[in-house]
Specification:
The protein is of the alpha/beta class and about 190 residues long. The chain is about 30% helix and about 30% strand. The protein starts with a strand and ends with a strand.
C-alpha cells in the first residue's frame, strides 16, 4: 500500500492510502494544478469523482471547501481503501460512495442511457473529476457523455497526452493542459 498527501486546505499534509497496482494515482503536481484550476468553484460545491480510486481528487476538493462528494469506483478492493481514507479524514458524513463503473453510474444516476436521450435540465454537480485508466477509451466516452448532457458545471478528465478529447460547442468551453505524458481536459458549461 502506497500513500499520497493532501496538498492544500483543511487536511493539508494529511496522508491517505493508495492501493498498489490497482490504481494509477494522479501525480501531486498534476493534482495540485487541477485543483487550483477549479478552486474558485469549490466553496460549498457538490463534487463527483468518477473512477475515484483512492479518492484523492474529491478528498482534495473537500479539503478545500467542497460541501459533499460522490465517489464512483467499481473495484471492491479499491473501495475498501477509499472508505478507509474517508474514515482517516473523518469525511464520511460529507461523502457518498457508489460501487459502479463510471459510464453505468451516469446512465443510472443522470439518465444518459442513449445517445439521443434528452439533455439533463441542469448540472447535478458543480465540479466533476475523472481519472480513468489510460488507453481504454473511457476518457473519450466520458467526455462525449458530458457534451451530450453536462452533468457538472465543470468537468475535468485526466488522460494520456497523445489523446485529444472532443471539443465543446458554445456556450460551453474546454481547455487542455499538458503535464509531461499526462493531459487534463477541462470542460465548462459557460465561457
Amino acid at each position: 500500500m502506497g500513500e499520497l498527501r493532501i496538498v492544500a486546505g483543511a487536511w493539508r499534509g494529511r496522508r491517505i492510502a493508495v492501493p498498489r497496482g490497482a490504481v494509477r494515482p494522479t501525480a501531486d503536481r498534476v493534482r495540485e494544478a487541477w485543483l487550483s484550476i477549479v478552486a474558485p468553484a469549490l466553496d460549498g460545491a457538490r463534487v463527483l469523482d468518477l473512477c475515484a480510486g483512492s479518492g484523492a481528487l474529491a478528498l482534495e476538493a473537500l479539503s478545500r471547501g467542497a460541501e459533499h462528494a460522490d465517489f464512483v469506483e467499481k473495484d471492491p478492493k479499491v473501495l475498501t481503501t477509499l472508505r478507509a481514507n474517508l474514515a482517516t479524514l473523518g469525511a464520511e458524513a460529507r461523502a457518498t460512495v457508489h460501487r459502479s463503473e463510471a459510464g453505468r453510474f451516469l446512465e443510472t444516476e443522470v439518465g444518459l442511457v442513449r445517445s439521443d436521450a434528452p439533455a439533463a435540465p441542469a448540472p447535478r454537480w458543480d465540479v466533476a473529476f475523472a481519472d480513468p485508466p489510460y488507453h481504454h477509451g473511457t476518457a473519450t466516452a466520458l467526455a462525449e457523455r458530458w457534451l451530450r448532457a453536462p452533468f457538472a458545471a465543470i468537468f475535468g478528465i485526466e488522460h494520456e497526452a497523445e489523446l485529444t478529447l472532443p471539443d465543446s460547442v458554445a456556450p460551453a468551453s474546454s481547455d487542455r493542459r499538458l503535464y509531461g505524458d499526462t493531459a487534463l481536459t477541462i470542460y465548462r458549461t459557460g465561457p
